[in-house]
Amino acid sequence: MSLAVVYSRGLDGLDAPLVRVEVHVGGGLPETHIVGLPEKEVKEARDRVRAALDTAGFDRPQGRVTINLAPADLPKESGRFDLPIAVGILAATGQASSKLLERLEFAGELGLSGELRSIRGALAMTFRAHRDGRAFVVPQSVAAEAALARGATVLPARNLLDVCEHLAGRQLLVPIAPVAAFAGNEYPDLADVRGQASARRALEVAAAGGHSLLFTGPPGTGKTMLAHRLPGILPPMTEEEALEAAAVQSLAGGAFRPERFGIRPFRGPHHTASAIALVGGGSPPRPGEISLAHHGVLFLDELPEFSRHVLEVLREPLESGRVTISRASRQADFPAAFQLIAAMNPCPCGYRGHPTRLCKCGPDKVAHYASRISGPLLDRIDLHVQVPALKAEELDESPRGEPSARVRDRVVRARERQVARQNVPNARLTGNALQDQSRMEPAARGMLRDATARKGLSARANQRVLRVARTIADLDDALAVARAHVAEALLFRD
Fold it and tell me: CA distances (Å), 226 to each of 222, 337, 386, 488, in order?
């Protein structure tokens, strides 16, 4: 009768709590029981592990095997526990050395041949393993992702035999080196956009302050083209931002590629996406599109075509930058500090206000189309910009626009002013902090007050105009918000 303890990790949102895999081999008929709140894929581990041990040439335990996954109140899911269970069985039966088990953690799904297969959440688990002072043994296929955790010791293994050789000290696993540098910027250039000076300016303001943006215009005016160029003018990600974004994408399984580390995510879900696909969910809860766009851009094209119920779930994350997914048995909290950019047509046919195409939509149809987007959601979008259709001769005469690199330089300088002044982008300013940092000239304050009364702006819309005006002032390197800055910000609310 013998006992072995192997360390692994569970997943709870972005957290990765420690799981002790306790393996006891006792007397009785040969059978295996897994306890500790395992879900179906964990229960199936006994068959995968049994076949992997046979294929690798190890002896099956001759007795009753009890595997306890502690703590018992934490649900255990996925095949990541295959490897620690196999190591525990081998250590408990004396077929593998247990000397190094205190200093190691294990995670990996086993194939029937003993090969190790990919798991999700490797980066989040490696963070916690490193913090607890242990090296982390993972499948070779996810080692580059796990190595993004700075300072962590990540030991990649191809199969179960590699792990056993390491434990015996005969052939040590070689730690993988961390990613050396950030990936380069690979987004399309803003210079490709001809004309649309107002929309280009709005894109620059949105990038500088982290503001949400809605483009409205007929088909083919460049709304989608502009949206895809927003990430290319955003400030470079900090290492902390890049690691946060990578950790969230790691949880989605297959959404993260280490070679794209440092590139801001751009997510563009189709309008048929469900609310769960957008905010996350399932059992266990997984991140949705808004979390996969963390520190990046969420682009919703054809905004009114999304289900109204789906769009309403964006309201709280747009304000808080986080989303909490609650289920009967557990909760999961995911970051969702995304920058929303949306596009829509002015009417169902798309040609309302077009210079050469006739709109066939009556006032009732136009009103019904617009009502698909609720007022509270529109109120939370900082910039509302019209993207008009241009005639062929206007396009031919329009010069090539500024390249993304030049616009990004101005955006970076404006964002640096915001961080130095208040430590957050202007879009995240709220309450007294917004009033304190705005430093409005009296004429600018009077203009905003008059416009609020004349246009019937809500208190939230008033604050958003003020934030946008503060960003325009930062682009002008102005200490105080002037009347001209408020006037331009008001143009972006029409």
Answer: 6, 21, 13, 20
